[in-house]
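Changelog-adjacent note: as of this version, every example in the card shows the full chain rather than a window. The one below runs 338 residues end to end.
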Amino acid sequence: MMPNEIEYLPEGLLDTPLQGLVSLLGTPTLMHLPGRRPQPLFVTVLAHGNEGTGYYAVQALLRRYQNQELPRALSVFFANVEAASQGLRFLDGQTDFNRVWPGTERPDAPEAAMMQQVVNCMRQRGAFASIDVHNNTGINPHYACINRVDNQFLHLASLFSRTVVYFIRPLGVQSMAMSYVCPAVTIECGKPDHEYGLEHARDYIDACLHLSELPGHPVPSHDVELFHTVATVKVPDELSFSFDEEPVDLRFIGNIDHLNFRELPAGTRLGWLQPGVATTLDVRDDNGQSIHDLYFAIEGDALVTRRPVMPSMFTLDKRIIRQDCLGYLMERLLPESS
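Full-length structure tokens:
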């Protein structure tokens, strides 16, 4: 499985809706366009097929430059165009496209060789910086993610949002693979149907195209709020769950996604367990070790936080929870540079 690689703007791309992209491109496609500065800005869209903001942002950006030269060369990877045609994160039989980049735990997945080729290509072209555009399904602010606490990475991230999240799990994500090539960031643009997310992503990519360099000096501490993802929270496959009154093993509060990016005190209730249910959540740190009891406790039938913590990307989408996770836990992290 290898990407199609082109050095032109396909006719009709600027007007093709997301669902029609697979008919236009056929397969995952890496597109290179020239600009005044030759080192390309690399942008990945549709790593998850149900996250269309990046695609529409690139469309809008290229319409803006339809009759003029780009400030910098631009390479765009249109990733899971097949899943995008059905509005799904990934199709049955596929591997999550944002878990198979170099460094993945799934190196034998057919998609892994494709991502390796994309990274190799961008390394050969001397990529200036990398942006992976995403949406999420819960209530979250717009924020940026980095995989290295480095001044250039922080400058790139803070240009999008003063809220920045540092993480090293999960493995196999685009930004981590590209961090060995150039400064790299993931931008989270809210829900895919929010118009502001499209505009924010378009203007951010445009701003990055105009950068002549990424500064090496520290970002002022008042310009960034830096958080560290300390745990991934999953619902075990054997545990039934819901967000309403139906009889299940674990019933979450109905608006659990409203807790995202809120600092929760110890004792915050997240849900209720049926009597006799011993298993709760699967909570793992960056080393894959279970740390459930560090962050959660059972009080009577209630699942509560054991210590102050801040969730991110908690979602109500049951399919996403089963395919990936319920969300993450974060703690504040002050960069050394501040």
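Structural remarks: The two ends are 44 Å apart (CA to CA).
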